[in-house]
């Protein structure tokens, strides 16, 4: 038994085959970055996205018959289309799109509803109000969905208009538990619940993917961060992973206790649905770093201090320490726990003896300190102890960074054998639902790790200096720092 996984990220998409031993093969990738027609706007062509997904899926299936399909996608990006034609009414709005900041502020002021511009709610409302006339936007011919919803609708040739609990719960349109749409919230955004997809379990038969060779059954849908959580085996309370990509996402598995609110908690984290099966929802807590790998890209493409992102490891390792230099990675503000959009990237402690290597190392260490911030916040909000960190993403291959993360967090760090654990997690979810494995625990038992790194030295002094550096980087742009979502 084998599973086809379709993994759709923010800048690219892939298909792969997941085997019973937990290995991946036949990985086919296409770059698919969004467009930015103006500062703050992030759009994509949903039809072209599906064409690319279909291409990589068919390539992966050329040599394999599969018993299940698992789908994992970037979350909250929004598409609106006509059921009668199957065509989007306009471009899809990416989760990074900021055109609805004003609408988020007004919604809190007028209705007391807290939503952020990276959620689906205001994006869907904006499309309905700006790309459709009054009669059209209240028609049941209009369908609304996130990326997973759109792709399932296309894969099933319009037979299924669905999303799962992990994706639905981050739209800003559900009740706190994430189990159903909140009719009061939908009404405030002038969205008809009938235009929204039916919410189904993460795991279980959803529909046949009739647009793929062999018509394999679609057996799992999950948001990308939740798939990565499962792909790193975090299904016991207190187990946590961090994915270090352009930004950084920490997710800790909490259990089956239903959250009482969907908004940000006191330490700056959010409740999420980790996965669901047989209408039993499993929950987690999520902490967010707004910029992680983007700081390495800045060193490379903007500052010219390194030739390639990979070079950062060797250059940073060429000095034993940053010699007192500290960097705050706040290129687009700070997420958890501070949520200060007006904070800005900062370098402190520079002397006449500071070298390129010191600065590169300080950048890696600064990202590691932000990772430790996420851990502390998640522990505070979940009341759980995170004994070790499991990490994936491009930066997980940087040895200097991994050691810095272990040092800053004072915890051992296990590095996923797969840089993209998201793909593997979607395979585990679909495979366990289809019988490839008898249970999710059996799927996770196949996991292998690239390495485990223990902390070195005492992190207390470094964390004290970090707290001082953070305080100085905040409120650099007061008007942006005043924003609260």
Write the layout of secondary structure elements.
Blueprint (H helix, E strand, L loop, with lengths): L2 E6 L3 E7 L5 E8 L11 E2 L1 H15 L7 E6 L4 E5 L9 E2 L7 H11 L8 H12 L2 H4 L4 E5 H9 L6 E3 H4 L14 H6 L9 E3 L2 E6 L8 E7 H8 L8 E5 L3 E8 L14 E8 L2 E10 L3 H10 L8 H7 L8 E3 L17 E3 L7 H27 L6 E4 L6 H11 L3 E4 L4 H14 L5 H5 L4 E5 L6 H14 L4 H4 L4
Parallel strand pairs: 1-5, 5-12, 9-10, 13-19, 19-20
Antiparallel strand pairs: 1-2, 2-3, 4-7, 6-8, 11-12, 13-14, 14-16, 15-16, 17-18, 20-21
Helix pairs in contact: 1-5, 8-13, 9-11, 10-11, 11-12
Keywords: ATP-binding, Kinase, Nucleotide-binding, Transferase
Pfam family, one: FGGY_C
Family: Belongs to the FGGY kinase family.
Walkthrough of the structure:
InterPro entries: ATPase_NBD, Carb_kinase_FGGY, Carb_kinase_FGGY_CS, FGGY_C, FGGY_N. Keywords: ATP-binding, Kinase, Nucleotide-binding, Transferase. Residues 240-433 form the Carbohydrate kinase FGGY C-terminal domain. Pfam families: FGGY_C, FGGY_N. Belongs to the FGGY kinase family. The chain has 485 residues and is α/β, with parallel strands linked by helices. The chain has a domain at 3-224: Nucleotidyltransferase, domain 5, CATH 3.30.420.40. Helix content is 33%, strand content 23%. It contains 16 helices and 21 strands. A seven-stranded mixed β-sheet has the order 15-16-14-13-19-20-21, with helices on both faces. A hairpin with a 3-residue loop joins strand 13 (240-244) and strand 14. Helix 1 (46-60) packs across helix 5 (147-155), helix 8 (224-231) packs across helix 13 and helix 10 (311-317) packs across helix 11 (356-382). The radius of gyration is 22 Å and the shape is globular.
């Amino acid at each position: 038994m084998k599973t086809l996984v379709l993994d759709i990220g923010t800048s690219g998409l892939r298909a792969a085959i997941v085997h019973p031993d937990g290995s991946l093969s036949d990985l086919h990738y296409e770059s698919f970055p969004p467009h930015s027609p103006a500062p703050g706007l992030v759009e994509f062509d949903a039809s072209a996205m599906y064409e690319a997904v279909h291409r990589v899926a068919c390539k992966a299936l050329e040599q394999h018959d599969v018993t299940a399909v698992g789908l994992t996608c970037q979350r909250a990006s929004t598409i609106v289309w006509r059921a009668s034609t199957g065509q989007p009414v306009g471009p899809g709005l990416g989760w990074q799109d900021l055109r609805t900041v004003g609408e988020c502020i007004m919604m809190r002021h007028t209705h007391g509803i807290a939503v952020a511009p990276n959620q689906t709610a205001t994006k869907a409302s904006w499309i309905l109000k700006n790309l459709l006339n009054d009669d059209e936007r209240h028609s049941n011919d209009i369908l609304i969905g996130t990326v997973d919803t759109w792709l399932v609708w296309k894969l099933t040739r319009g037979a299924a208009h669905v999303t799962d609990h992990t994706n639905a719960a981050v739209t800003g349109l559900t009740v706190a538990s994430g189990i159903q749409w909140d009719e009061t919230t939908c009404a405030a955004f002038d969205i008809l619940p009938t235009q929204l997809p039916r919410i189904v379990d993460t795991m279980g038969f959803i529909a046949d993917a009739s647009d793929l060779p062999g018509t394999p059954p679609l057996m799992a849908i999950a948001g990308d961060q939740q798939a990565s959580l499962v792909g790193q085996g975090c299904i016991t309370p207190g187990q946590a992973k961090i994915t270090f990509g352009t930004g950084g996402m920490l997710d800790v598995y909490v259990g089956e206790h239903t959250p009482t609110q969907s908004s940000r908690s006191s330490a700056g984290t959010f409740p999420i649905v980790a996965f669901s099966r047989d209408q039993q929802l499993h929950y987690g807590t999520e902490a967010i770093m707004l910029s992680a790998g983007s700081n390495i890209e800045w060193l490379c493409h903007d500052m010219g201090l390194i030739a390639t992102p990979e070079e950062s490891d060797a250059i940073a390792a060429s000095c034993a320490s940053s010699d007192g230099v500290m960097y705050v990675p706040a290129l687009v503000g700070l997420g958890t726990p501070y949520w200060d959009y007006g904070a800005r990237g900062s370098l402190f402690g520079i002397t006449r003896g500071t070298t390129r290597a010191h600065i590169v190392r300080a950048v890696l260490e600064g990202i590691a300190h932000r990772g430790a911030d996420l851990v502390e916040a998640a522990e505070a909000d979940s009341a759980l102890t995170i004994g070790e960190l499991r990490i994936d993403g491009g930066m997980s291959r940087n040895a200097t960074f991994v050691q810095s993360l272990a040092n800053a967090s004072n915890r051992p760090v296990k590095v996923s054998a797969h840089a993209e654990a998201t793909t593997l997690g979607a395979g585990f979810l679909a495979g366990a639902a289809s019988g490839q494995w008898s249970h999710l625990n059996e799927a996770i038992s196949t996991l292998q790790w690239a390495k485990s790194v223990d902390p070195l030295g005492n992190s207390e002094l470094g964390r004290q200096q970090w707290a001082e550096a953070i305080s100085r980087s905040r409120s650099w742009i007061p008007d942006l720092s005043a924003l609260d979502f």
